[in-house]
Each structure stands twice: as structure tokens, then as C-alpha cells.
Design goal:
about 350 residues; alpha/beta; Isopropylmalate Dehydrogenase; 10-stranded mixed sheet; two-stranded antiparallel sheet
Length: about 350
């Protein structure tokens, strides 16, 4: 049956990197019989500019009709003064909430060729392969009450609420234990249980769920220590599971360990099986439109899409191998080039991946 992918390029470098991913999809269709149909829709600032809404009904419709969503990036400085409801980020958060995309998988893998691009010493990161599983539709990002209140005497108070129900923790914990079972069977749950009640409950539920996965070795770590351990001894981790805010922060740290956030894909999965796939990096307005952005995180997000939404493991592996191959061949976008290495533009990298797929 024809698979449907919603293509949401978004803002900044989004359209450029997405153009390369679309070229790759066409190659998979023409060369490997991937039966696919694409529909493009606007999200974020691009959608706001076109319709006054960062997540218009028409875009939601396209996403509903699709089996999977591939997203570029959203955001830009020109939107920062808009009311929160109209900002590009609202488009992204709205997609996550609308489709119940509660499980965010952010792998951080160091390609051997890029060890020099890491800000850590090569021996600390060589062979690094960890997976952060971030809860994505709860916690302080969505907790009520929230807002900015007048608290009298001319003072205002800002409020956000970190809350997790047992069922929210349980379902993300199960995703994490199952992922660990398929890897090195070690799971570290990150929280702030020494201070926060919400973390105390988180830990209790994770412990309880662990009884169903006796083959997985579970540990717990406070988030401040986890941040330190990630830069001190990152290879101690296999799978990390954590809440929305902690996962946002720790996944940026993990990204930098691999040399470039421009390499890291992500998957956001719903209980319904729906998935949205996007690079971990943002819209990089400073380099937008220059044809220099790294499209590999988006192309690797496409590989995750093939794997998780369509169960096309062989095709996903093939695409990931093609990316590995072009790195071996020496193709480098500016963000991953060490000094002295020659630098390729966005389209050149995309074309190289297609050549590698065809060879
Ligand atoms: C991410 C981003 C988003 C987040 C922003 C753009 C809303 O930082 O996906 O990590 O905070 O979740
Ligand atoms: Mg983030």
C-alpha cells in the first residue's frame, strides 16, 4: 500500500535540508520500490506568514491523512516578539500535543570520522552510541497552571507547573525498557528526586515498571549529575529516560558530544503508531538560505521514519550506511569539517548520499 508522508519544511534552513531529504525519498522510490506519496504543508513561522497561524487547520489535515510526518525546523528571530500563541514553536508543540507524540527518541552516535569534531577528547567519545528517550507531551512544557500573573503591588509572577501522572511515566518507561532490551540492556532514569515530588513519583513508577523487564539493568541519576556525567564519561550510558525539560537539555549536551548537532535525528512516537521525525537542531537563521546547512540529521530522521513508522528496516539500514559511506569518502558540511578539510554545501551532501545509495 502507498505510504503517505507529510513534509513540513518549516523555517530557516528547514526548506533547504528538507529539499535534500525529498530528493532521497524520490531516490528510494525510484531505485528501491519505496511506494510513497508526499504532501507538503506549512508550519511555524512560514505558516504564520502565510495564514497568521503557526499550525493551521490545513496543515493538521495533511498530517492526519499521513502515516508519518517529516519536519525540518521552526523558529526565527523575526517571530520572537509575537504573542506566545502565534510563535513558530507553538506549531511544533501543537503537533506534539495534537498527535500525542509522547515518546521522543534522540540517539547520539559518534561516527568514527567525526571524532575530531567533538568538543571532548576522542578517547572519551569514540564508539559513543547512546539513546535519550525524552517524554514529550507532559511535564513542565504542558503543565497547568501556567502564565504570568499580576501579584499586586505592581509585581508580576511567572508560573509553570511540572506534573506527571503515573500513567504518563509508566508509558514512557515501557518505551525505554523496550528500547534498552533491543540494545545493551542498561537504562538510566534521570530525575531530580532529591528535591521534586514529581520526580519522587517518577522514580517510584519506573521502579515498578522495571519488574516487568528483569533483563534490563536499571539505574537512577539526578539530572545535575547526569549533565556532568554526560560530559565526563558519556560512554557509561546506553539508554537514558527522562522528562520533557530535562530531556530537552540533556539531548543538546549529548548532541554536542558527537561533534555536531547537525548529525542528529529524532523520532517522536504516539501510542497510535503515528510518528513525527525531525532533526534535533533548530532553524539556524544565521545560515539560512546560504546552501551550507548540513542535511544529514534530516536524512537520518528519514531513516528513523522508515524504521519506526514503516518497519522498513533494510531500507533504513541502507540509508544509514549511505550516510556512513559519504563521511568515509570525506564529504563534510561546514559544521562537521575540521580545519583543513574541504567543505561541501547542502545540495552536494544530499547528492553524495544519493550516489552512495545508488552504488
Ligand atoms: C527541541 C526544541 C524545542 C523544545 C523547542 C523548539 C520548542 O528545543 O525539540 O528540543 O524545547 O522541545
Ligand atoms: Mg531542545
Amino acid at each position: 500500500m502507498t505510504k503517505k508522508i507529510a513534509i513540513l519544511p518549516g523555517d530557516g534552513i528547514g526548506p533547504e535540508i528538507m529539499a535534500e531529504a525529498v530528493k532521497v525519498i524520490h531516490c528510494l522510490r525510484d531505485e528501491y520500490g519505496f511506494d510513497v506519496e508526499l504532501e507538503t504543508a506549512a508550519v511555524g513561522g512560514a505558516a504564520y506568514d502565510a495564514s497568521g497561524d503557526p499550525l493551521p487547520e490545513s496543515t493538521l489535515k495533511v498530517c492526519h491523512a499521513a502515516d508519518a510526518i517529516l519536519l525540518g525546523a521552526v523558529g526565527g528571530p523575526q517571530y520572537e516578539s509575537l504573542p506566545r500563541e502565534l510563535r513558530p514553536e507553538k506549531g511544533l508543540l501543537g503537533l506534539r500535543a495534537n498527535f500525542g507524540l509522547f515518546a521522543n527518541l534522540r540517539p547520539a552516535i559518534l561516527y568514527p570520522e567525526l571524532a575530531a569534531a567533538s568538543s571532548l577528547k576522542a578517547e572519551l567519545v569514540s564508539g559513543l552510541d547512546l539513546l535519550i528517550i525524552r517524554e514529550l507531551t507532559g511535564g513542565i512544557y504542558f503543565g497547568e497552571p501556567r502564565g504570568i500573573e499580576e501579584s499586586g503591588n505592581g509585581m508580576k509572577t511567572g508560573i509553570n507547573t511540572m506534573r506527571y501522572s503515573e500513567s504518563e511515566v509508566e508509558r514512557i518507561a515501557r518505551v525505554a525498557f523496550e528500547a534498552a532490551q533491543k540494545r545493551n540492556k542498561r537504562l538510566c532514569s534521570v530525575d531530580k528526586a532529591n528535591v521534586l515530588e514529581v520526580s519522587e513519583l517518577w522514580r517510584e513508577v519506573v521502579e515498578h515498571v522495571a519488574q516487568d523487564y528483569p533483563d534490563v539493568e536499571l539505574s537512577h541519576m539526578y539530572v545535575d549529575n547526569a549533565a556532568m556525567q554526560l560530559v565526563a564519561k558519556p560512554k557509561q550510558f546506553d539508554v537514558i529516560v527522562t522528562g520533557n525539560l530535562f530531556g530537552d537539555i540533556l539531548s543538546d549536551i549529548a548532541a554536542m558530544l558527537t561533534g555536531s548537532i547537525g548529525m542528529l535525528p529524532s523520532a517522536s512516537l504516539a501510542a497510535t503508531g503515528k510518528g513525527m521525525y525531525e532533526p534535533v537542531h533548530g532553524s539556524a537563521p544565521d545560515i539560512a538560505g546560504k546552501g551550507v546547512a548540513n542535511p544529514l540529521a534530516t536524512i537520518l530522521s528519514l531513516a528513523m521514519l522508515l524504521r519506526y513508522s514503516f518497519d522498513l528496516t533494510e531500507l533504513a539500514n541502507r540509508l544509514e550506511r549511505a550516510v556512513g559511506k559519504i563521511l568515509q569518502q570525506g564529504f563534510r558540511s561546514a559544521d562537521i569539517a575540521s580545519s583543513g578539510e574541504s567543505v561541501s554545501g547542502t545540495a552536494e551532501i544530499g547528492n553524495a548520499v544519493i550516489d552512495a545509495l545508488q552504488s
